[in-house]
Every structure is written in structure tokens, then in C-alpha cells.
Design brief:
By secondary structure, the chain is of the alpha/beta class. It has five helices and five strands, in the order E-H-H-E-H-E-H-E-E-H. About 35% of the residues are buried. It binds ligand CA2.
Length: about 150
């Protein structure tokens, strides 16, 4: 059996495949591939393996969260995109698994439209990192490495 205790799932929700192509003033200009590269570089230094994925489908995120637990992953870093603000299914998934979940957002939804102020998954997240752009993903990784999560 492979040792997954150093495996980090980095899950990304709808439209984040288009990151870097528009609204750089809100989301920055890094693409998801850039973010994957940064995490893999830092992960190598920290002895953590990164499995970064993106989907536009809510149920796929739920399936991947279950998979992370089944595989024995150390943590899930997740930017659920707009599902953050709508998905009780993601909240239930985070509550149903023991794998710790860190919520990351490039922008700070609390400083944006009111409909972005609620985060369902945030209610079950061990930590939420908002408004630090791509660096927020690295901050999440550092928190795992530091044993904070
Ligand atoms: O700030 C974040 O990371 C968000 O999760 C991004 C979501 C938004 O609905 C949340 O409120 C906050 C939107 C993702 C859209 O992704 C794109 C970004 C740039 C270019 C194209 C798509």
C-alpha cells in the first residue's frame, strides 16, 4: 500500500480552469498550472505530495473529498469557487470525513457582494484563507507542514 500520509489534495471548483485569463485585478494573473507548479516546488521541499485537480461539477468535488479520506490523505486544500456560497453538499462532505479541510479563496469574498459572504464549507473548515491570491494556497500548505492543521 502506498503511504498517503504526505499526500495533499488541492481541489478547485467551477471556472477556476480559466484563472489567469480575466479579472486579474480580482484573482491575480497566475493560472491554475502556475499554482500547481508553486505548490509542487514547495511541497517537494516540505516532503508533501500535491495532487491538484479542477472540476466544474459539484458532485465531483464531493467524490474527491471522499476519495481523499479513503486514500488516507493528510489534508484537503479546497477553493470551491461559487459552490462555496451555495453548497450544503460540500459542507456535509467536509463534516462527513476526518481529513482536515482548508478553504482557500484568491479574493476576499467578505469584501465583495453580499451573496459571497456566506461560506458553507467554511463552517466545517479547519482554517480559511481569504484574499491572498495564489499565495493563499501556499499559506495553506505551510499550515499543514507546520502541523497547525
Ligand atoms: O476568490 C475566490 O477564490 C473565489 O472562490 C472565486 C470564485 C468566486 O465565485 C468566489 O466567490 C470566490 C470565482 C472563480 C472564477 O474563476 C475565474 C477567475 C478568473 C478568471 C476566470 C475565472
Amino acid at each position: 500500500m502506498t503511504d498517503a500520509s504526505n499526500l495533499i489534495y488541492v481541489l478547485n471548483g467551477p471556472n477556476l480552469n480559466l484563472l489567469g485569463t480575466r479579472e486579474p485585478e480580482i484573482y491575480g494573473s497566475d493560472t491554475l498550472d502556475d499554482i500547481a507548479g508553486m505548490l509542487e516546488d514547495r511541497g517537494r521541499e516540505l516532503g508533501l505530495e500535491i495532487d491538484l485537480r479542477q472540476t466544474n461539477h459539484e458532485g465531483m468535488l464531493v467524490d474527491w473529498m471522499h476519495e481523499a479520506q479513503a486514500e488516507g490523505a493528510r489534508a484537503i486544500i479546497i477553493n470551491p469557487g461559487a459552490y462555496t456560497h451555495t453548497s450544503i453538499a460540500l459542507l456535509d462532505a467536509a463534516q462527513a470525513i476526518k481529513t482536515p479541510v482548508i478553504e482557500v479563496h484568491l479574493s476576499n469574498p467578505l469584501k465583495r457582494e453580499k451573496f459571497r459572504h456566506i461560506s458553507y464549507i467554511g463552517m466545517a473548515a479547519a482554517k480559511s484563507i481569504l484574499g491572498h491570491g495564489a499565495k493563499g494556497y501556499l499559506m495553506a500548505l505551510e499550515a499543514v507542514a507546520a502541523g497547525e492543521i
